[in-house]
Amino acid sequence: MIRISVGFVLAAGLILKASAQASLYGQCGGTGWTGPTTCVSGSTCTFSNSYYSQCLPGSASSSSTSKPTTTSTTPVSTTSSSAPSATCSSTTRRATGTLSHVGINISGFDFGCDTSGNCVLTQVDPPLKQYGGGDGQGQMTHFVNDDGFNTFRLPVGWQFLTGGSESGTLNAANFAEYDALVTACLNTGASCIVDIHNYARFNGAIIGQGGPSNAVFAQLWSSLAAKYASQPKIIFGVMNEPHDVPDINMWAQSVQAAVTAIRNAGATSQIILLPGNNYTSAQTFVSNGSGAALLTVKNPDGSTTNLVFDVHKYLDSDNSGTHSECVTNNIASSWEPLAEWLRCNGRQAFNTETGGGNVASCVQFLCEQIAYQAQNSDVFLGYVGWAAGSFSPSTYVLSEVPTQSGSTWTDSLLVKSCLAPNSGSQSGSTGQ
Ligand SMILES: *[C@@H]1O[C@H](CO)[C@@H](O)[C@H](O)[C@H]1NC(C)=O
Ligand SMILES: *[C@@H]1O[C@H](CO)[C@@H](O)[C@H](O)[C@H]1NC(C)=O
Ligand SMILES: CC(=O)N[C@H]1CO[C@H](CO)[C@@H](O)[C@@H]1O
């Protein structure tokens, strides 16, 4: 833990005031801003809105003095110390400034699953009132209508879907319960991510590498894709957080088997999320070889249309998402190098888990992360906060569960300050 929460905002203000120049991606202007108004070498103070200007890479240009619109495309040349090679598809940022997908995880069908891919089915707590869990339907309706969210991620254990058997055949009763959540999500008009929350494993053994065969995994996805083939707003999340997978190229073959099965089941155009190793860490996606391995995954027609990389990143000291305090906005370590790699390869990624405690440090860092992602919306689809659903808002450290009183819902600090599209965080105007 590097920072303290008490007096943090004040302390940060004093530190920034004392330093001559704002750091890369630091704030450099805005109503009420008393910190530095010039940027470190290699970056330029760029106007976002009247509340927020930020140091962005590059030298001054005419586009840096006017407010970027959210409807037109604003090409920005990126600067990089490691010049992209000639094989790059593009090094030009063409971001609209608005993320296409912004959401919340609605957790509960995954309760009882551990990182070894064991799932204790008695611990499943469906986030639907009719099954005794959290009011996922009410939460999602609130998040769409009051906050402007348009995506929900619906984690579920493989074992729950099949009634415990290592197979690809759905258990009808269990699937009906999960499908009720998916249907409630679709009924809000949002995009809905079907997320198999098994860490690349089934009961401790890795898919395609000692555990279930790729054929069994493909059969699971074929069964699910057949159910949702006609729903354009379903997004297929192939697997939550693979980790310690010994052979990343064999893992890419398992992912390929799932992609082929989904497409051949009739879901020919929906987004499919491709997950790498190390808990889908955005930070090591490229450096530890996941990116290179997953670049080989293709649709049956040989294209990569709507094959999007799935990356997670928390903001706490060890990227575990278990501490209330945030210590980083992940920009320099993760988002900037990933954006360059994606642009270079002509691909996109979706940050389907991120979050922090309901404390001032997380408001600051998560808002900075979101503003950066929006500035790079050509390569980042968006983000999904972890988590609402069946969690207890009073005891779960990363709770994004809104509380209800009568017909009024009240959001957690982080949801209302950063995660909600209505908070202004995408334009760098934060803490509303
Ligand atoms: C990183 O890559 C190495 C070499 O491929 C592999 O042995 C290791 O398991 C990977 N680590 C993680 C956490 O993905
Ligand atoms: C996994 O990623 C985290 C950051 O997300 C990093 O700190 C850690 O070193 C990585 N582990 C490996 C083995 O690459
Ligand atoms: C940060 C966080 O809450 N991560 C969770 C991801 O999902 C698994 C399974 O539901 C939880 O065990 C983790 O705590």
What does this structure look like?
This protein has helices spanning 8-18, 136-147, 158-162, 172-187, 214-228, 248-264, 277-280, 290-294, 331-345, 360-375, 413-419; strands spanning 27-29, 43-49, 52-57, 74-77, 92-95, 101-107, 151-156, 191-196, 201-202, 205-206, 234-237, 272-275, 307-312, 349-354, 380-389, 403-405, 408-410. The protein is of the alpha/beta class and 432 residues long. It has one domain: TIM Barrel (Alpha-Beta Barrel). The strands form five sheets. It has an eight-stranded parallel β-barrel, surrounded by four helices. It has a three-stranded antiparallel beta sheet with strand order 1-3-2, with no helix packed on it. A two-stranded antiparallel ribbon has the order 4-5. Helix 10 (360-375) links the parallel strand 14 and strand 15. The longest helix is centred in the middle third of the chain and has 17 residues, at 248-264. The protein is globular. Residues 1-18 and 61-86 have low confidence and may be disordered. One 2-acetamido-2-deoxy-beta-D-glucopyranose binds at residues 243-244, 248, 277-278, 288-289. One 2-acetamido-2-deoxy-beta-D-glucopyranose is lined by residues 107, 110, 113, 155, 197, 321, 386-387, 398.
